Every structure is written in structure tokens, then in C-alpha cells.
Amino acid sequence: MRHQQHEEQEPDRRTRRIIDAVAAALPSGPSALRRALSPLRLAAAAIRAAARLARRIPPDRPPHAARTAAARNQRSARWYRAWYLVNAARRFHTAITTRPRRQSVADAVRQAMPTELRYLRQHLAAQANRRRTATEVDRLAAIYGDRLGWSTVHDGSTTADCRHAHRQDFLVSNPPRMGLPGAVHPRCRCRPVRPWGTRLLT
């Protein structure tokens, strides 16, 4: 599994455009994220952001080039933040529209909140993991150059993607689709190492 539920599958084209719009509207930085998603504001902020931006979907924009893994990670952090917000809005919308007839909207949101806070913690942990990974990749790239190796821990918890990537190389300037080692999923234990001299991951 690449990510937790809110980041598990690639979004479809329409969802991706909504996410891009949300990402463009979000301030950067984890402190701003925590303020925006504090428990009392989470449901309303997510629903309002997704509903408002869904009505105003912008054209697709190509990603800007970034020279380092940390710079690319900072840019993608907003995108993952937006992906979380869109999915949070959908979960709250489902909780509201499927609530029992006698249950108020406030009670439906309150009942959904513990699960949503768990998703929020998973999202924040994944974002922190991506930041650590990007820092380590940049450190090794300064030593070995743009091409680095991928090392995977093999045990019963290793995912198929991580197992496949072991002892292959990747380019820092053009990371593989699955992401960087250590950031494939929230509990990823892969790490970047000196290049193996094997084929490149794409």
C-alpha cells in the first residue's frame, strides 16, 4: 500500500484538477496546516474549500522544475495537503448525507471527527516523513551526484513496490513515480544509498 486511505490511489483527472486548485490556495508550512485543520475548523474548512474550488476548476498546469529533492518536496507538500482536504470534505459530506434522520449535522460531524483526526495524524506523519527523506536524498546527492541507489528492508512488512526497488538506482532530478526511498508510504523504511550501478527506476 503506497499511502494511507486518503492518499492511497491516484486521483482521477477531475479530482486532480480540484486538488491542484486547493493546493494553489493553501499557505505553505506545517504550522499553517495545523491552524487550518484544527479540530473545530476541519469539517467546515474542508467542505467549503472543496465545494468553492470545484466550481472554479482551473486548467492543468505543468509542474515547475526544482533543483533539489527538498525544493520539490516543499512544492508537493501543498498538493498532498490539498489531496487530504478534498478527501476530508468527501468523508464529512458522506457522514452528513447518510446520517440518521434525527441526528443533527453538528452531531454527524462530531461523530466523524475521531476518525478524521486519525487521518489527519497519518497525513502529518507522511508529510514529516517526506521532509526527512528529501533532506537525506539531498545530502547524499551532494556526495554522489544526481544518481543514487535504493536500499529496502526485507521482512514481512515490506511492500511489493519497495521490494521491487531494492538495489536499483534512481535520479534525484527525475524521481521514480513511486516516490523517493523512505517516502513511498507512511511506514516506509527504505533509504537512499550510494548508486548501485544498476538500472534506473522510472
Short description:
This protein has 202 residues and is mainly alpha-helical. The chain is built from 6 helices and 3 strands.
Explain how this protein is built.
The protein is built from six helices and three strands. It has 202 residues and is mostly helical. It has a domain at 5-144. A three-stranded antiparallel sheet has the order 2-1-3, covered by helices on one side.
Q: Determine the number of helices (DSSP H or I, runs of at least 4 residues).
A: 6
Largest sheet: 3 strands, antiparallel
The tally of beta strands, per DSSP, is 3
Percent helix range: 40-55%
- Tell me the structural class: mainly alpha
Radius of gyration: 19 Å
Strand order of the largest sheet: 2-1-3
State which percent range the strand residues make up: 5-15%
The N- to C-terminal Cα distance equals: 18 Å
**SSE order, one letter for each helix or strand:** HHHHHEHEE
Global mean pLDDT? 76
The coarse silhouette is elongated
Parts with pLDDT < 50 across at least 5 consecutive residues: 1-6, 57-65
Short key terms for the protein model shown above:
mainly alpha; elongated; 3 strands; 202 residues; 3-stranded antiparallel β-sheet; disordered N terminus
